[in-house]
Amino acid sequence: MTTSITTDKLLEDLQVVVRDAEALLQATASQTGERVEGARARAAESLRQARQRLAAAQTDMAHEVREAAASTDEYVREHPWQAVGMAAGAGLLIGLLISRR
């Protein structure tokens, strides 16, 4: 669970960086010079690659979530009483933790 939260946060942060880089490229569009043009070209290429990686990561995460959901659904269908028992146990544990506050 922590890994998916961390991955979600990382993807959100990467999206923010991509948007900020796009804004920076647009803001410096009027700047001229060989060094500036070279830096802009490298930044644009890095941005393009980051967008591709971000799209691939999002696709992979969506696929993993669908697989986990299907696996959970299959388990619950095969072992309904065990699933009910686990849910009741988790509810009891959460209730105890909340009541201690």
Report what the structure shows.
There is one protein chain. The chain has 101 residues and is mostly helical. The chain has one domain (2-99). The protein is built from 3 helices and no strands. Helix 1 (2-27) runs antiparallel to helix 2 (34-78) and helix 2 (34-78) packs across helix 3. The radius of gyration is 23 Å and the shape is elongated. The two termini are 23 Å apart. 0% of the residues are buried. The mean pLDDT is 82.
Number of strands: 0
Low-confidence stretches: none
Give the H and E element order: HHH
Number of helices: 3
Q: TL;DR?
A:
With 101 residues, the protein is mainly alpha-helical.
Keywords:
101 residues, 0% strand
Secondary structure: elements and pairs:
Blueprint lengths: L1 H26 L6 H45 L1 H20 L2
